[in-house]
Amino acid sequence: MYYREYLPPPNLAAYVKCFWVLESGPDYQAGPTEQVLPDGCMEMVFHYGEAFHQYQSRKLQRQPHSLLYGQITRFIELVPATQVAMIAVRFHPWGLYPFLGLSPQEFTNQCIDLHDLFGQDSRDLEDQILSATSDAQRLQHLQHFLQQQLFRYQHIDPLIGQIGNTLIAQGGKLEINEMLQAFTISPRHFQRKFLRVTGLQSKMLSRIIRFQHSLQLAEAPSVNNLTELAYQSGYFDQAHFIRDFKAFTGYTPKAYFKKDHQFSDYFVSG
Question: Architecture of domain 158-259 in CATH?
Answer without folding.
Answer: Orthogonal Bundle (1.10)
